[in-house]
Amino acid sequence: MKRLQIILLLFYINIFFGQQVNIAEFASIKSKYFSNEIYAETYFPKNVDKSGNTDYTDLLQKAVDENTKIIFPNYPVLISDKGINFRSNQYILFQPNSKLIFKSSSKGGYEIIKMNNINNVKAYFVNIEGDKYHHLSSEGEWGHGVLIKSSSNIMLYKPMISKCWGDGIYIGQETSVPQNITVNGGLINDNRRNGISVISGIDITLKNITISNTKGHNPQSGIDIEPNNGKNRLTNIVLNNITTKNNAVHGIIISTGNLNGSTQPISITINNHHDYNSAIALGLGVTRNNLNYIQPLSGKIIISNSNYTFPGKAFIRNYKGKKSNIDLSFQNMNFKRSNAAGTSAKLSAVSLPLNQFLSDFKQNLDSDVK
Known about the structure:
By secondary structure, this protein is mainly beta. It has helices spanning 2-17, 23-33, 57-65, and strands spanning 38-39, 69-71, 76-79, 84-85, 90-93, 99-102, 109-116, 119-124, 127-129, 142-149, 152-157, 160-162, 167-172, 179-184, 187-189, 194-198, 201-207, 210-212, 221-225, 234-240, 243-245, 250-254, 266-271, 274-276, 280-284, 298-309, 314-318, 325-336, 344-347, 350-352. Residues 4-9, 11-18 and 349-370 have low confidence and may be disordered.
């Protein structure tokens, strides 16, 4: 019992103190990428409110509209449900004390930062706090911290996104398939629907990220890879060095059934995934029974070098669906149970079709993904 208490204490220390911007790293990035920059606060009034209680959405948007390299104010700024729209070919830098605080909204869907049909954007240390605990209605599930839709060559470096009504980050498709999207580092904590949703994309890389405490509205997962329809693509989706902690349903869920076999083969790689105390460390809802498939879904899913500890329900859950042609491979998987004996098991270099289960799988015919 004492050992478990120590682990939980270390977990919360990591959550609350892992959010700080490294000052030396900030200075290095500022020096390297932000010559001829504009400080957004030059657009604000002289008697600016630095408490985060005054709505400066329009003034901040004007700064973003008129400049290529923008440094956000070094204090919290209140943002309405208009959100802030980034443009193509921009560099955005949040300072150590920068934060966008979302003003309470009754809308079921919004984006605090929107990157829609744009290209070539790098944003450093984005810091967002949503309205999960003071939303003005019970409607919807799509209040997102950062929305990236039909865009290309986008990089988020060490974002800190918390308490959003929907997802911390949403990567999806409106017209073209998003391409070359990277999220490197950061903490995505206490969001209501998902930490990160990957709906469609080519060359999507998520790495070195901690995603924790996702809870409130299904799927309630750290990372949810879930296309909306057969027009979406999942090509070279790479998750590397991901830590998921205490998410209400899944650490990571792969739910590709909506592709219905009409798309090109999928390719998903998960390496060095560590999950602690999520209900289910890894969920596999690769196909669904209730869809008419044009042909069996094909492609490959490779999961390697991953460690799952103290799951609430199961290490890995494979949800019932139609037969597919997916090549599913597990390599070097380590499981540690939460019982008093601390039983552990190791799975190495195993490849199996989706209709087979390892001894550590727990089958449940009713999906947790709504």
